[in-house]
Amino acid sequence: MAATCISIDGSADDDAKRSGGGEEEMGDNIVCPPCVHYVRKCEIIAPCCGRAFGCRLCHDDMSPSCGTMDRFGVMEARCSICKSRQPSKTNECSHCRVTFAEYHCATCNLWTSLEKRPFHCDICGICRVGGRENYRHCVTCCMCVSVGVYDTHICECIPEKYKDNCPVCREDMFSSRQPPQDLPCGHAIHVNCFRNLARYDGRCPICKKTVLSDESTRAARLARARDIRLQPMPPDLARVVDVLCNDCGDKSANLGWHFLGVQCPVCDSFNTVVEGVAPPGRCGG
């Protein structure tokens, strides 16, 4: 279970049943392909262009010139069975009486199945998935957090962090289709983005602190320190530097520079940045 809850707008299911058999013609001859994101028997009328779409995501994919549709601005829906237009605040066709979906949120203008256990969070202001009983809203983070980690999740240091964009893909995390996660430093990132990033860099992309455990990086640190001892810099390339450690925040002076890295004498981390190079004649520590 994800530590934080994702928006149902992002719960697009590639295996979702389509609401119709194929492309259908509206009365005004505008083609409306069936929705591939949600199991429903209705379409929405976009408030921006007046056209019918399977859902808000269908609109955004098919009409990029309109921009992102305002989910709360939808006023009309159209029955996929009898094609009758009607107010959007209903889950039953006023003409043929078909039920549009198992779940309906009049606030978000959302119709979908109960498979992903959708629920509306009044504080978030949008629908999410995963079951209401499994999540608790954190006012500081502005996000629904899993009850299993609610008491231990990091939130005080960076308020409303989930209203920021993911530092890797730059997508809004608050209403994202991808679940976000806390890093040990307190910053947030998409789970999948972090997995991809960690294959190349085990640091937070925002503050550059190491986010991998000390135990998991110990062997690599020892190996790098050994390599530095075995491969000292030749005199013509030797430098004395001042560094800042991204992990402990300590500043250290008069350290010997090496192309493999400069180790922090306080925490043994190699996650350091050179802040200055000593003038000739100053000895390294």
User: How much strand content do the residues show?
Assistant: 15-25%
Strand order, largest beta sheet: 4-3-5-6
Radius of gyration from the alpha-carbon trace, in angstroms: 27 Å
Provide a count of the helices. 3
Largest sheet: 4 strands, antiparallel
| Helix share, percent | 10-25%
Instruction: Determine the mean pLDDT.
Output: 85
H/E series, N to C? EEEEHEEEEEEEEEEHHEEE
SS class: alpha+beta
Basic shape: elongated
**N- and C-termini, Cα separation:** 49 Å
Total strand count, please? 17
Low-confidence stretches: 10-29
What can you see in these coordinates?
- InterPro entries: RCHY1_zinc-ribbon, Znf_CHY, Znf_CHY_sf, Znf_CTCHY, Znf_CTCHY_sf, Znf_RING, Znf_RING/FYVE/PHD.
- The protein has 285 residues and is α+β, with helices and mostly antiparallel strands.
- Among the domains are: 17-112, no CATH class; 214-277, Rubrerythrin, domain 2.
- It contains three helices and 17 strands.
- The protein has helices at residues 56-62, 191-198, 214-230; strands at residues 24-25, 31-32, 42-45, 52-53, 76-79, 85-87, 103-105, 110-112, 119-121, 126-128, 135-138, 143-146, 180-182, 188-190, 240-245, 251-256, 272-277.
- Strands 4-3-5-6 form a four-stranded antiparallel beta sheet.
- Strand 5 (76-79) and strand 6 (85-87) form a beta hairpin.
- The model is unreliable at 10-29 (pLDDT under 50).
